[in-house]
Fold:
Amino acid sequence: MSEKSLDFKIDYSKLKIYDEFNTKDIKFPVVLSSPHAGSVFPKEFLDNSVLTEQELKTSEDSFVTDIVKKASDAGIPLISLNIPRTFIDVNRDKIELDETMFYNAPKSSDINSRRCRVGLGVLHRVVYQNKNIYDGLLNYEEAMDRIKNIYEPYHKRLKQLVDKCVRKFGICLLVDCHSMPSMICNIMNEIKPLDFCVCNLFGESCPEEVSAKIYEELQKNNHRVEYNRPYAGAFITFNYCQPRKKIYTLQLEINRSIYMDEKSYQKNKHFQYVADHVSDSLVSLSHFLLDLKK
Structure:
């Protein structure tokens, strides 16, 4: 990466930060979050990236919002970020900033590079195949604008939905919805490629029977499901989990190859089946939670 300065500003007035669905009449003690399915690239970002839009999409959880939309239509609130994670990753702590990405980063204890050593902090330095997104250094103030205008509004609204769910039901399960590259699933091919991963922070984020219920539903029709392999959960799963307040979390991961072509970024012929299966599993889990709290 060169040492040149990349000075650009985003016109946030032209961006719709997130979409939300069925958030008024909540029928179940469940909230769905889709933080990585966004595909609306700010023009200024594309103009200052050395990668093509196609290359930037390799980090995207394509169509995940579409997959869980049927479950939302059954009465589960859903919030989905429209902005790609390569621009800002709301599934990271906002202090996970790589100071080496900026030409004017302050010497501050507020910067934490715990996740940044591999280039995947709140602002990504690389995409999935370890290609640099920028050929130069960013303005730190522009990074703060991203956090102010995208990161904070998303989390503010997500927290509002979780709190609303708790007020109505006395309990909330936040399901953070993601997809995973098939290459990772195939590497773990002891028996057959992995279809789904149920991430519960190694049993810490929700009651065991809740994880078991979604696991049981997803493995129907000979699907392979694993707990916490290859992922156990990230920032949203960890940060929103408050068992003493009966706020629980799960991260759901779906093998991309079972519903899309990973080269053309198009839905494949199995998309509707996968969407129905995942949504039906989430609705069954939601009914289970209603019965559990009685």
The mean pLDDT is 93. The two ends are 57 Å apart (CA to CA). The CA atoms of residues 24 and 217 lie 27 Å apart.
